[in-house]
Amino acid sequence: MSTTSTPAVAGWFTTGDEPRLVASRCTACGTLVFPPPPPEAASFCRNPDCDGEQHEPAELSRLGRVWSYTDAQYQPPAPYVPTTDPFEPFALAAVELPEGLVVLGQVAAGYGVADLAVGAEVELVVETLYEDESGARTTWRWKPVVELGEEADQ
Amino acid sequence: MSKQVAVAGVGMHPWGKGGRPFVEYGVHAARAALADSGIAWRDVDFVVGGETVRNGYAGYVAGSTFASALGWNGARIATSYAACATGAQALDTARARILAGLSEVALVVGADTTPKGFLAPNAGERWTDPDWLRFRLLGMTNPAYFALYARRRMDLYGATSEDFAQVKVKNARHGLENPYARYRKEVAVADVLGSAIVSDPLHLLDICATSDGAAAVVLTSLEYAQRAGIADPVRVEAISTVTPTFPNTVIDMPLLATDHAAGGPPERTFKEALALAAYEEAGIAPDDVDVAEVYDLSTALELDWIEDLGLCKRGEAEVLLRAGDTTLGGRIPVNPSGGLACFGEAVPAQALAQVCELTWQLRGQATGRQVEGARVGITANQGLFGHGSSVLLAR
Ligand SMILES: [Zn+2]
């Protein structure tokens, strides 16, 4: 990863060897929200029985299970930023985390729908989404966790 | 006190891609509905327009736009926007004034002129708007959400691409004789499976198009209908526009994540709750339903709705489909109009078009697609941001 790579959106995930999504957690009842509201924004708790307004960052599990998955075989319209010409399809997954949220994400480069199944384990990685004048802009993606030995069979 | 109102008249403009101003379509449908009711425009005391968000200011004030185009008659006006449920929310607004005794005759109109291709967000950089972010960060189109639901049906319930294609084949056949349908052509399973995959597992022909179109409904109090000589009208028995109950654990377009369900999933999903609220309001059970018009944005979604409406148990919609139960002549025909498969989606008109079709069905006027002896019909749809609706009609 180049030194100029920065998250495409600030505060939604950590980087490094073991990246994690960052939710906001209500300090009153513990309800998590992803994506987190901007730091300067008011945060009224989503739990209808809670009047909490204070929240703190909370890192989510790196591993989850696929709730469902699909791909984009046609180039999505703007503000999607295409990175190849012609367009290359990419996969998408909705992933259920142990905390009790399902979070959408693109699937890691090199993996497609054939590598996914409902209930399969995936881990969070950070990869380049597109490049702009500041360099590579990164995002979170879901990468299939392939059991040892399985990879050789494929 | 009666909680019912009468459907005095319904009317539509044929769906298509004519590119004419939405007002023309809307006025055409409104005049057709008024003619159907036999009630003069002068006698309408309340107009509710379904807002279109793609046609400038006139679309934002649709109630006013239609009232003005019909010729100012002094009626009160309102405009509703609730994504795909816009028409039902407009209908509910009209019903509420009538049931409160504040209005007697309401005209509800929805019309749209839509752009080609994927429905994309409005221009500009909006880093706090989930509808913008889902495209920027994920490239997540509407069909991609539909595909997530479709894939779950396959992995959890054993649905196949052939099942999804059979929904299209059925609806295409249903719509053949519908003069308001945009697509009136037989489709074979091989056509669907041979069309390009848009978002796996959904093919191009599994996904509904966007269309121009308009639908209008004239509602009156039961007393007014009686005075006007409208014998045995179709009645609105219930309109459900409930929102989700926290935590909403099924990922909804255009969001990037579900609510946090710390204590596990809730008792019922949002779509199940929409239908249940309609059944409870009407005191009608799923067993009583003769015909359903559901929002088949994708073929697979029709199967989801059949279960959400309680017409069979979870995971059994394919059994109904394969047995021909949801086909005209079957036990519980679904989308006799041809559904979105034959119409394409015209957002503010679509929920009203469902009511138009069920009205014709319950009157026995659905030539070429009639569900014999239908007395009770239900609609369902879901849109963005917690909007959705279910309307129960009976005669
Ligand atoms: Zn809270």
Automatic annotation (TrEMBL), chain A:
Ranges for domain ChsH2 C-terminal OB-fold: 59-126
UniProt domain ChsH2 rubredoxin-like zinc ribbon: residue ranges: 17-38
PANTHER family: BLR3430 PROTEIN (PTHR34075)
Record-given protein name: Benzoylsuccinyl-CoA thiolase
TrEMBL record, chain B:
Domain Thiolase C-terminal residue range list: 275-392
Listed Gene3D superfamilies: 3.40.47.10
InterPro entries (alphabetical): Thiolase, Thiolase-like, Thiolase_C_2, Thiolase_N
Recorded GO MF terms: acyltransferase activity, transferring groups other than amino-acyl groups
Superkingdom of origin: Bacteria
CDD domains: SCP-x_thiolase
Domain Thiolase N-terminal: 22-221
Pfam families reported for this sequence: Thiolase_C_1, Thiolase_N
Protein name from the UniProt record: Lipid-transfer protein
